Amino acid sequence: MIRHTFACLFIMLSLSAFSQNKNNKEDQWGRDIIKKALAEKNNYHVRINKPIPDRKTAIEVAEPILFKGYGEDHIIGEKPYNVYSIDGYWILTGTLPKGYHGGTFLIILAAKDGRVIKIIHGK
């Protein structure tokens, strides 16, 4: 019984550490992307002028911008979206189905005012 309890505890702690490590990598990736985007001199001139408080609002703000630039069917085909909130910015990326090769969109929005910091689509 004690051995079983110890094994379960070990597995739970290992999974927790794995999850934490994954989150740390995602956070560092996000911080690096934001830092590079802010250093660029791109002016997208798109600002929603309202805060983006949550994941749902980030998607609602990003989709029309992405649809206009890359086509609604194309962007919808990249669901499910990856959505990250890091240091006052929302980073959204698309995903590709298994076996597909190519790029997806990346859009960075300022959470405080909806300003587009970066928008790209890989090939």
The secondary-structure class comes to: alpha+beta
Number of domains: 1
Radius of gyration (CA) equals 18 Å
Described by strand count, sense and barrel closure, the largest sheet is: 4 strands, antiparallel
Query: What is the β-strand count?
Result: 4
Number of helices: 3
Low-confidence stretches: 1-20
Tertiary shape: globular
The spatial strand order of the largest sheet comes to: 1-2-3-4
- Helix and strand sequence: HHHEEEE
Proportion of residues in helical segments: 40-55%
Q: What is the rounded distance between the termini?
A: 55 Å
Arithmetic mean pLDDT: 82
Strand content: 15-25%
In brief:
This protein has 123 residues and is of the alpha+beta class. The chain has 3 helices and 4 strands.
Spell out the key features of this protein.
4 strands, 123 residues, 18% strand, 4-stranded antiparallel beta sheet, alpha+beta, disordered N terminus, 3 helices
Structural write-up:
This protein has one domain (2-121). Mean pLDDT is 82; it is low at 1-20. A 4-stranded antiparallel sheet has the order 1-2-3-4, with helices on both faces. The chain has helices at 2-39, 55-70, 72-76, and strands at residues 82-86, 89-93, 105-110, 116-121. A hairpin with a 5-residue loop joins strand 3 (105-110) and strand 4. By secondary structure, it is α+β, with helices and mostly antiparallel strands. The longest helix is centred in the N-terminal third of the chain and has 38 residues, at 2-39.
Describe how the helices and strands are arranged.
Elements (H helix, E strand, L loop, with lengths): L1 H38 L15 H16 L1 H5 L5 E5 L2 E5 L11 E6 L5 E6 L2
Antiparallel strand pairs: 1-2, 2-3, 3-4
